[in-house]
C-alpha cells in the first residue's frame, strides 16, 4: 500500500529512546541539540509580530508563482545588504528551505539521478532526496590548517553520468565552515566541467563567528561570508529564509534566488514558475510582513549572536581546562559546535551515558556523517541559555572519564 521509495527505518534510535524515557519519567533533560530559537528564549514580542502581520492586504488572495512583489523586493533588499544585486524577478518564495530543496530536485532531476552533498552535513538532504527518488553521494570536507575545505579531487571524482547537482551548505551545518575562494572555485569548476547546477543553502549566512580583533571581524564579515546569490558564471540557486535570518521558523517564509548565466537563468525561472505555481505555499501574511521582519532581523539576531559567542568561549575554556583532552573544532559561522573527543572515546556510548545518567542531550558525530578517520565527536548547539550550557560541563567530564 505504501511507497517503497523510503529506505530508512521509522524506529527511534537509541539516543531518542533514552531522551524520551527521561521525559516520560519526569526527569530533567538539558537539550544541547536545541536549534529552535523560539524555544531558546529568542521569541519576538507578540506586539511586534501582530503589527508586522496586520497588513490590510492579507484580506485578499493574489497568487503569483514567484510570490508577492512586495516580499520579493524585501528579499532583494536583504541581498543588496550583502553586496549582491538580485532582481525581484530572480526570486521565488516558498514556505521553507526544505520545500525549496524539494522543488529544485523536481526541477533538476529524474528518478534514479544523483546529487552530491557535503560530508559532514545535516542529514535532512538525504530524506528530501529519497522523497524525490533521487540518490545522494557525499563529497568530503577535510580539516586542513584549522579550516574545513572542499577536497577538489574527491568532489570531481564523485561525479557520475547521473549526477545533476551539487549541494553547498554555506556556512556548513554543523561544521561551521564557510567556503573560501578556493572552495568556491572547486565547486564552480566541477559544476561547469560536468554541466551541473549548484544549490547553495545559506541560512546561516548572518551568523559569523566571533573574532577577537574587531577589525578582523569586520573584514571577515565582508570577505569570508559572501553570498552565492550574485553568481553569474555557473547555474546556481541560493536558498535562505526567515527561519534563521530573522529567528522566525514559525513564519514559514523562505526563498530561492536563481542565479547564473542569463540565458540559463531565464529557462530555469520559467520552469520553476510551473513547480511553484503547483504549490503556492507561502502565506499572504508572511509575504506582506517580510519587509518589516527583514528590517528588524539584525536586532533580533544580535542577542542570539551574543549568546552563541558566550557559549563558545565557555566551551573553549572548558576544553582547555579538562584533563581528558577534548578540543573545540574551528567554527567560522552558524550556531553548532563540534567537540573532538579524546582518542578511543566511544561517541555513541558517551552520548547515551549523558542522556541516560546525566540528563544532557548531545549528538554523536556520526549523525552528521563526520569523516570516519577524523575521530569521535559530540555535536552541540550554542543556542542554549548560558547557565544551562555551562551546567553541562561536569557531566561532560564524567562521560569522558567513563568512555
- Uncertain segments: 214-224
Large-scale geometry = globular
Order of helices and strands: HEHHEHEHEEHEHEHEHEHHEEHEEEHH
Main pleated-sheet profile: 8 strands, mixed
Helix vs. strand class: alpha/beta
CATH superfamily membership of the largest domain, which one? Type I PLP-dependent aspartate aminotransferase-like (Major domain)
Helix content: 40-55%
| Lateral arrangement of strands in the main beta sheet | 2-9-8-7-6-3-4-5
Output the radius of gyration.
Answer: 21 Å
Tell me the fraction of residues in β-strands, as a range. Answer: 15-25%
Number of helices: 14
> How many distinct domains?
2
What's the arrangement of secondary structure elements?
Blueprint: H1 14-24, E1 30-31, H2 46-52, H3 69-80, E2 91-94, H4 97-108, E3 114-119, H5 124-131, E4 135-144, E5 147-150, H6 152-157, E6 163-169, H7 181-194, E7 197-201, H8 214-223, E8 236-241, H9 242-245, E9 254-259, H10 262-279, H11 284-321, E10 327-328, E11 336-340, H12 347-358, E12 360-361, E13 363-364, E14 377-381, H13 386-391, H14 393-402
Parallel strand pairs: 1-12, 3-4, 3-6, 6-7, 7-8
Antiparallel strand pairs: 2-9, 4-5, 8-9, 10-11, 11-14, 13-14
Walkthrough of the structure:
This protein has 14 helices and 14 strands. It has 403 residues and is an alpha/beta fold. The protein has 2 domains: 135 residues, Aspartate Aminotransferase, domain 1 (Alpha-Beta Complex), CATH 3.90.1150; 240 residues, 3-Layer(aba) Sandwich (Aspartate Aminotransferase, domain 2), CATH 3.40.640.10. The strands form 3 sheets. An 8-stranded mixed sheet has the order 2-9-8-7-6-3-4-5, with helices on both faces. A 4-stranded antiparallel sheet has the order 10-11-14-13, with helices on one face. It has a two-stranded parallel sheet with strand order 1-12. The longest helix has 38 residues. About 3% of the residues have low confidence.
Amino acid at each position: 500500500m505504501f511507497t517503497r521509495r523510503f529506505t530508512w527505518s521509522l524506529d527511534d534510535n537509541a539516543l531518542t529512546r533514552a531522551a524520551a524515557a527521561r521525559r516520560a519519567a519526569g526527569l530533567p533533560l538539558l537539550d544541547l541539540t536545541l536549534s529552535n530559537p523560539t524555544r531558546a528564549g529568542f521569541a519576538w514580542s507578540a506586539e511586534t509580530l501582530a503589527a508586522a502581520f496586520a497588513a490590510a492586504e492579507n484580506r485578499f488572495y493574489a497568487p503569483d508563482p514567484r510570490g508577492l512583489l512586495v516580499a520579493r523586493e524585501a528579499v532583494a533588499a536583504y541581498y543588496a545588504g550583502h553586496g549582491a544585486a538580485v532582481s525581484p524577478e530572480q526570486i521565488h518564495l516558498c514556505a521553507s528551505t526544505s520545500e525549496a530543496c524539494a522543488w529544485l530536485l523536481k526541477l533538476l532531476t529524474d528518478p534514479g539521478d544523483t546529487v552530491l552533498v557535503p560530508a559532514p552535513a545535516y542529514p535532512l538532504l538525504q530524506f528530501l532526496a529519497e522523497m524525490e527518488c533521487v540518490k545522494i553521494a557525499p563529497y568530503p570536507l577535510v580539516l586542513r590548517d584549522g579550516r574545513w575545505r572542499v577536497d577538489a579531487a574527491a568532489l570531481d571524482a564523485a561525479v557520475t553520468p547521473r549526477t545533476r547537482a551539487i549541494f553547498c551548505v554555506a556556512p556548513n551545518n554543523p561544521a561551521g565552515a564557510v567556503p573560501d575562494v578556493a572552495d568556491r572555485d572547486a565547486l564552480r569548476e566541477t559544476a561547469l566541467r560536468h554541466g551541473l547546477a549548484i544549490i547553495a543553502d545559506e541560512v546561516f549566512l548572518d551568523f559569523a563567528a566571533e573574532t577577537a580583533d574587531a577589525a578582523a571581524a569586520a573584514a571577515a564579515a565582508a570577505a569570508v561570508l559572501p553570498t552565492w546569490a550574485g553568481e553569474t558564471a555557473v547555474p546556481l540557486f541560493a536558498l535562505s529564509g526567515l527561519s534563521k535570518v530573522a529567528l522566525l521558523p514559525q513564519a514559514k517564509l523562505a526563498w530561492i534566488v536563481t542565479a547564473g548565466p542569463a540565458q540559463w537563468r531565464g529557462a530555469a525561472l520559467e520552469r520553476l514558475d510551473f513547480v511553484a505555481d503547483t504549490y503556492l505555499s507561502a502565506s499572504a501574511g508572511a509575504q506582506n510582513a517580510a519587509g518589516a521582519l527583514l528590517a528588524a532581523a539584525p536586532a533580533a539576531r544580535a542577542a542570539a549572536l551574543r549568546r552563541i559567542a558566550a557559549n563558545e568561549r565557555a566551551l573553549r575554556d572548558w576544553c582547555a581546562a579538562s584533563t581528558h583532552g577534548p578540543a573545540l573544532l574551528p567554527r567560522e559561522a552558524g550556531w553548532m559546535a563540534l567537540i573532538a573527543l579524546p582518542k578511543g572515546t566511544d561517541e555513541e556510548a558517551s552520548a547515551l551515558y549523558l542522556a541516560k545518567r546525566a540528563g544532557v542531550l548531545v549528538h554523536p558525530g556520526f549523525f552528521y556523517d563526520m569523516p570516519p578517520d577524523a575521530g569521535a565527536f559530540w555535536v552541540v548547539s550554542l543556542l542554549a541559555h548560558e547557565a544551562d550550557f555551562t551546567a553541562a560541563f561536569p557531566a561532560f567530564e564524567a562521560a569522558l572519564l567513563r568512555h
